[in-house]
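Journal club prep — side note

Before the paper discussion, L.F. wants everyone to see what a predicted structure for a comparable chain looks like in token form. Sequence:
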Amino acid sequence: MRDLMPFQLLGDMLTVAGWTFAFVLVALVRSHWYIALQILIPAIYFGGALYLVPKFGAQGVTWAYCLAGATYFAISVFALRDVLFQGSDGHSNS
């Protein structure tokens, strides 16, 4: 059980961080990103578990969960890149 917890915790942290950004997506009326995330992330979790469990057992589930959380976070940051990476003057840094 102890070897399952690190990836479960990391997945939880990434998912909660992704949720925070997802609520910003809703507030900014970027619903298409939010809906896409709500469809894509469970599919990644399910597909990852189907692939990893036969190879790694119970640990594969936690890896799939962590992968889903990391994807959730990464896509949320990508969808909000114009908001997150603004300079202090309101202009993009790129």
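L.F.'s comment for the group: The CA atoms of residues 37 and 61 lie 20 Å apart. Keep this in mind when we get to the figures.
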